[in-house]
Design goal:
With 353 residues, chain A is mainly α. Helices cover 73% and strands 2% of the residues of chain A. The chains are: A mainly alpha (353), B alpha/beta (269). Chain A: It is found in: Cell inner membrane.
């Protein structure tokens, strides 16, 4: 613009100096750091590919078959769904320890409604999803309105939702045959179809579709940008005009709904409705998110990374089992991966301008 | 009250003015019956010692703090802001000292934070999809308007920019959306000599566009370089308004710290 000509000129010429300063030679390590900084899902993706190749090379066709590889997908579906929700929370610099409890509570609500209240299956499903959303709403309000730390809030609701699950269900398991007779829709995500030797359950489809949907929401909508901004620097986001409280509540509610979906998929996976199921799902979900490269400090990470993170755990679990190792080696490997992933995140965060 | 007028521009109406603003925090009085006037097209510097209440004054006129009593007028109309968003909607943009940028997001995303443009049609309405192209085009235009086109990639994360470039993005954002007033809180405090110079150029550019600027700064050379008038704040109130062309920086500091009595015309004005 013309009126920038006076004082604007010297500024511009100084600026070119600054930019030429910017394009100075980076060492290969710095360039790698920059690349990883811009592509947070790259590391977990590389790890998935490399680990599949290594297990395929050592185990052979028993591992590297359409059947086995799709079996991994089936095994990680529940964790993948829950950790998609967990990713949203962690992106806001929060953490949700109650995701597993919400999932089981939702599945129990679905089972109770279908079996004892005589409502149609889809009504039971809606009731279960609503229960999940309500749990998320409680978490969200405690975090955003009462301003309690998410860790403490969800540590509390983890116990509360878990206890409600047992009280409400009377510690009763709904058998698979009864579900098939009364409300087969509860088993929907356990149904599968084949493409050659590959077997896909609808639960796997749900995991992939949900990840795609959340990827879109996080990257292509204002809401998604706000989720990142709130996690990155909540104060800055507030001053920039974002209603941070609303964003936080929406994130916890969406995560609650996703946990409800996971509860539905869980019924399909294990067949019955059991209040004892999914006890470790909160830890599994955090593991997948962290291995997937999402930063626990918020504002950085991706839903695709989480999907890869869940796959890494699945690949190592099945691969090591097929190798005939003690299951503790899987635990040990996953533990090491968590620490390596967080160390890598710290290093990437130190990226220089 | 408007007819009283202050400073040099007694003939024109202030675009933003405050009368008898008071704000107490418990027993601490941050604003003590203070006045404030900003005239169209000027750069008004606000100086004051630490604890003089200048940041509370700025927060009151930018909506971040609600005064206990007193009146704020924008273009002669009384306004009451209870949040920064209301002040923003009224056309007052603030460049905070912390910049209020989200480091991990891109330049374009940051410029539109909280007021994103959505795609037209179904993609925008139903899927609420962002119109990245339009946002990036707008951001590029605004940055090049301010001579900041050297930022090559509008999609690059703000945290990869230098301090001065970040300040530039924050100023460009304010300039792009401010309809009436820009408030800048210590824009050069964190910058080196060269980058400070660029920010002062930015202030002149924005002024050349006809937008009045409120500049809060501790840096007297910077204040005297760009300000048209200087509002001196002391012990919670406006103690003087001086003309930087007729007063020396050391005298301004002396008035600010109470070592020197404010000039008669300053009091009267």
């Amino acid at each position: 613009m013309s009126n920038a000509s006076g004082p604007g000129r010297p500024a511009a010429s100084e600026g070119t100096e600054a930019s030429s300063f910017d394009t100075r030679k980076h060492t290969p390590v710095q360039r790698l750091q920059h690349f990883l900084h811009g592509n947070p899902a790259a590391v977990p993706m590389i790890v998935v590919v490399v680990s599949v190749v290594v297990f395929a090379a050592t185990i052979g066709p028993k591992f590297y078959s359409a059947f086995t590889l799709t079996l991994i997908l089936q095994q990680v579906a529940i964790t993948g769904i829950v950790s998609a929700g967990q990713t949203l929370i962690i992106l806001t610099a929060g953490i949700d320890l109650s995701v597993g409890s919400i999932m089981v509570l939702s599945s129990v609500v679905m089972g109770q409604f279908a079996m004892h209240y005589g409502v149609p299956g889809f009504v039971a499903v809606i009731a279960g999803l609503a229960a999940g959303g309500l749990c998320g709403l409680i978490n969200g309000l405690l975090v955003s309105l009462v301003k309690l730390p998410p860790f403490i809030v969800t540590l509390g609701t983890w116990s509360i939702f878990g206890a409600i699950t047992f009280i409400y269900s009377g510690n009763e398991t709904v058998r698979s045959q009864d579900i098939d007779q009364t409300a087969p829709i509860l088993h929907f995500f356990g149904n599968s179809f084949r493409i050659g030797h590959a077997v896909f359950t609808y639960g796997v489809i749900l995991m992939v579709a949900l990840s795609a949907l959340l990827w879109f929401a996080l990257n292509k909508t204002a809401w998604g940008r706000h989720v990142y901004a709130v996690g990155d620097d909540k104060n800055a986001a507030m001053l920039a005009g974002i209603r941070t409280g609303r964003v936080l509540v929406s994130v916890y509610v969406v995560t609650g709904l996703i946990c409800g979906l996971a509860g539905w998929a869980l019924i399909g996976r294990i067949g019955s409705v059991s209040p004892q199921a999914g006890q470790l799902e909160n830890i599994n979900a955090i593991t997948a998110v962290v291995i997937g490269g999402t930063s626990l400090f918020g504002g950085r990470g991706s839903i695709l990374g989480t999907l890869f993170g869940a796959l890494i755990v699945g690949v190592f679990s099945l691969g090591l089992r097929l190798l005939g190792t003690d299951p503790q080696w899987t635990q040990l490997t996953v533990g090491a991966l968590i620490i390596i992933a967080v160390a890598t995140d710290q290093w990437i965060r130190k990226v220089s301008a | 009250m408007d007819s009283e007028g202050f400073g040099m521009n007694t003939t024109t109406q202030p675009i933003l003015s405050a009368r008898a603003l008071t704000k107490n925090y418990g027993r601490v009085t941050a604003l003590d019956n203070t006045d404030f006037d900003l005239y169209p097209g000027e750069v008004l510097a606000v100086i004051g010692d630490n604890g003089a209440g200048k940041s509370t004054l700025i927060k009151a006129i930018s909506g971040a703090v609600v005064p206990d009593s007193g009146e704020i007028r924008l273009n002669g109309q009384p306004v009451q802001f209870v949040s920064p968003m209301q002040a923003r909607d009224a056309g007052i943009e603030t460049v905070y000292q912390t910049l209020a940028l989200s480091p991990a997001l891109s330049i374009a995303d940051n410029m539109f934070l909280g007021r994103e443009i959505r795609r037209k049609g179904v993609l925008g309405k139903l899927f609420r999809m962002l119109d990245r192209q339009a946002m990036e085009k707008f951001a590029r235009e605004k940055l090049s308007d301010l001579g900041l086109l050297t930022i090559q990639n509008i999609g690059q994360a703000v945290e990869t920019l230098s301090g001065g470039q970040r300040q530039g993005v924050a100023v460009a954002r304010a300039a792009a959306f401010a309809a009436k007033v820009i408030i800048m809180d210590e824009p050069t405090a964190a910058l080196g000599v060269k980058e400070s110079g660029r920010v002062l150029d930015l202030i002149r550019d924005v002024k050349a566009r006809g937008l009045p600027i409120v500049l809060i700064s501790h840096n007297m050379p910077h204040v005297f370089e760009v300000a048209d008038r200087i509002h001196i704040h002391r012990l919670g109130r406006r103690i003087a308004v001086v003309d930087p062309k007729t007063i020396s920086p050391s005298d301004a500091v002396a008035i600010m710290t109470g070592a020197k009595a404010p000039p008669e015309e300053g009091l009267a004005a």
